[in-house]
Specification:
The complex is a heterodimer. By secondary structure, chain A is of the alpha/beta class. Chain A is built from 13 helices and 12 strands. The radius of gyration of chain A is 21 Å and the shape is globular. Chain B is of the alpha+beta class. Chain B folds into 2 domains: 3-43, Arc Repressor Mutant, subunit A (Orthogonal Bundle); 56-142, Lrp/AsnC effector binding domain/regulation of amino acid metabolism (RAM) domain (Alpha-Beta Plaits, 2-Layer Sandwich), CATH 3.30.70.920. In chain B, 32% of the residues lie in helices and 21% in strands. In chain B, strand 2 (94-99) and strand 3 form a beta hairpin. The longest helix of chain B is centred in the N-terminal third of the chain and has 13 residues, at 31-43. Classes of the chains: A alpha/beta, B alpha+beta. At the A-B interface, helix 2 and helix 11 of A face helix 1 and helix 2 of B.
Chain lengths: 395, 164
Amino acid sequence: MSQVSVPTKNRLSSRVQEIKPSGIRRFFDLASTMDNIISLGVGEPDFITPWNIREASISSMERGFTAYSANAGVLELRQEITKYMYQRFDVDYNPETEVLVTVGASEAIDIGCRAILDPGDEVIIVEPGFVSYSPLVSMAGGVPVSVGTKIEDDFKVSADQIRDAITEKTKAIMISFPNNPTGAVMLKEDLQEIATLVEEHDLMVFSDEIYAELSYDHKHFSFAALEGMKERTILISGFSKAFAMTGWRLGFVMAPADVLAAMLKLHQYSLMCAPTMAQYGALEALKSGMDDVERMTQSYKQRRGFLVESFTEMGLACHMPGGAFYAFPSIKATGLTSEEFAERLLYEERVAVVPGNIFGAGGEGHIRCSYATSMENLQEATKRMQRFVSSYLGG
Amino acid sequence: MTEKELEILRILEENARIDSSTLAKMTRISEEEVKEILQKLEKMKVILNYTTVIDWSKVPQAERVTAMIDVKVTPKRGVGFDEVAERIYRFPEVQALYLMSGAYDLQVVIEGKTMQEIARFVSEKLSSIDSVLSTTTHFQLKKYKHDGIIFEEVEEDRRIVVTP
């Protein structure tokens, strides 16, 4: 009989062990065991990918476009991306040397970190923010440094806050506006003071602009469009949110040629290329999908109004988010922590929201509520939340 | 027309049952303003009616037949097509009437309980109008999509409950 040998050494790397599992997982596990849940916890559009995009991808498969594409992505798609970004957001990139099609915006953040960080390099991360930033910085050997934004500032970050966090080891700043989970946006003048700081301290900027199209009150302004900032920015975006293409896993990144070449090296060794059929869908999205984007954006805007007004009415302080599809109300008035609130709301009223603390500094005392769900769901969810909240506020 | 009025029209076009307090929150104006806008739009006949899209094929006791009839007519001096159009659209079984470009002049959409009923309308009422030169009747076999609504849509929410 052969003996089973149990490994004696710790078989997982210490780097991985140091990373905490995402706090969102626990809520998913809780919520997925229950019936009759209305979920405001979903971080993706409730629209199905527009038919013309699905049709273009199906057709690409029918025509046999199933091989690897160029590592950086189908050239025609990179050209369309460049054109689109120039027309919409006033940033001018070279499709041959400064654009890379990635497997979702997440890959772009990952390879961006690995391309520029040396062990011990600090990255200032503006929080509350997307849950992946800090782990991805750590996995690349960097050190995440949190800077928390506040509801009183409409969840904008100021140059002063960032200046206070800068040390000799600071290599980059990670910003994302419109923001997940706060919905905050930064206008040109807000970004300008940060650009000055970036120049002063010779820093790089990761600007995750995946929600750019979902800006409701002002046209989105890209960080890379500021004078001198293109040379220092890793501009990340993708198709998931604006075109309702989350499952396609298709993003892109634009960066100065040397940085892009380094990212391309990592991309080609780990992924080869983004899925070819998804790239053909994305091509169609850029060529004729803007009307759909407009239609979906209009709809989010109306639901945003409904949800935020409803929170205010029930006594929860909530700023008007300028973009994305999240409201981030304060639940401090109920005396509960974010996790307590979310858990009790789930058990008592069967409404799933995401506790704000899992999005990092500044998130405690808030909950993230996605309005990427039908008006009927929002009406029922706010009715239930009203009942829940009043039992804490009225008492 | 103001931006808010347009927004309200777009919302109501999708869902006529939405109440004014919800409309007010969605458009971020007061409920009183919403009511004023609605009254104004109704008075201007911009909003004509608030109807319901019903799939009658699912109601056994309410079977219906719909036909589209292409009609060629002789227009009259002075009133063009309007006079004959009016004579046609006054019949209650006429659901819609359009003046068309191309091979024929008027398109009549007509609904009846049976094919016979429609045949009778065409031969007795429509063809007997003086200026009507010819008619071609097409019966609808199945409704896939109507007024932008897909009838057999099974697009459910397949997203997982909580995601970052």
